[in-house]
Amino acid sequence: MHHRKNVTLEIPARRGQLRRVRAFAVECCAGHRVSSAVLAEVQLGLTEAASNVIAHAYAGRPPGRLRIEASWHGNEVRFAITDTGCAFTPDRVRLPAIAAGDEDGLGVYLLHQSMDRVRYRRTNGRNRLELVKILRSLA
Amino acid sequence: MDSPSRTIRGVEVIELQVSCLDADTADEVRKDLADYLQGGKKVVLDLNRVQFVDSSGLRTLFFFLRTLNASGGDLKVCRVSSDVSHAFSVIGVPNIIDVCETVDDAVDAFPQ
After folding, report:
1. According to DSSP H, which parts of A2-70 are helical?
2. What whole-number distance in Å separates Cα of residue A25 and Cα of residue A40?
3. pTM of the full structure
4. For residue A2, is it within any domain?
5. Spatial contact of B42 and B12, defined as CB atoms under 8 Å apart
6. Could you give the 3-state DSSP secondary structure of residue B109?
7. Do residues B52 and B86 lie in contact, with contact meaning Cβ atoms separated by under 8 Å?
C-alpha cells in the first residue's frame, strides 16, 4: 500500500456537516481499491463519531470545532477525532433492546461495529477518539 | 421535501426523497411524514433513494413504527440499498420492521 501524507478535516461542530464528513471518508479510501462495503463502514463510523460530538460535546455552550485527522499505516487507516467539548465516554458497547424501546447507545454500537478498533482518551481538556479501519483491498 | 405517496389496496406507499437518512435530515423527514402517522394507517416506506442511514435515521424508522403501531397501524420498508441493508443487518432491523424487496411485496405483507 502506497504511503500517504496525513490529511485533516476541520469543521464547525454543528448540524449540516455530515455530508462533508462522508466526503472526507471517500477521500481517505480513494486509491486503496476498497470494497463499497468497507467504504460504507468508514462513512458510517465517521458519521457516528462526528454526530456524537455535534450533539453532545458542546451542549449548553457555543459550538466549537471538530477535527478529523487521517493517517495511513500499512493496510490500515487511522482516524483521530478531536474536540474541546465536555468529556465523553463511549463505554456502552452492546446492542440496545430496541424492540423493548431502548435505543440508548445505538450510535456507539454502530461505531464499534463499523471500525476495527476504537479507543477514547481525554487529555488536556480535549476529547480524542481514535478509530482504526483495516482497508481490505479488492482481489 | 414532500415525499410523493400513493395508495395501493388501502396501503399508503411513500417514497422517501432523501439520499441520506441521518442526524442532519431526520427531523425534516419526521415532519414530512407526520400526516401519515395518524389514524392507524398501513404505511410502506420506499427507501430506493436512500443510500446512507445512521443511528439517527434508524431511530426515525423505529419512531414511525411505534407511532403507527400505537394507533393500530403498521410499517413496512422496501427497496433497500446494499449499504443501507448492511446497517440494517448490524442492528437487526429485519427483526423489528418488515423489510421487503419490492413495493408489491411490502403491500402484500399487510393482512388483507
Report:
1. 18-29, 36-52
2. 9
3. 0.92
4. no
5. yes
6. coil
7. no
Counting the structural domains of chain A, the total is 1
Q: Which residues of B touch A40 (CB under 8 A)?
A: 52, 83, 86-87
Give contacts of B90 with chain A, Cβ < 8 Å. Answer: 110, 113-114
| Residue A49 covered by a domain | yes
CATH number at residue A123: 3.30.565.10
Q: Is residue A77 part of a domain?
A: yes
Whether B66 sits inside 8 A of A107 (CB atoms) is: no
Grid coordinates representing B54? 445512521
- Of B48, B45, B79, B90, nearest to B63 (Cα)? B45
Spatial distance between the Cα atoms of A122 and A40, rounded to a whole number of angstroms: 28
* Cβ contact A128:A80 at 8 Å: yes
Distance from CA of B97 to the nearest CA of A (A): 10
Indicate whether A1 belongs to any domain. no
Place of cell 478509530: A131
What ipTM does this complex have? 0.90
With cell 446512507, the residue in question is: B52
Cβ A74 vs Cβ A133: under 8 Å: no
Instruction: Mark yes or no for CB contact A51/B82 under 8 Å.
Output: no
Q: Summarize pLDDT for A42-99 with one digit per residue, the tens.
A: 999 999 999 999 999 998 888 899 999 999 999 899 999 999 999 877 666 788 888 8
Domain that holds residue A106: 7-134
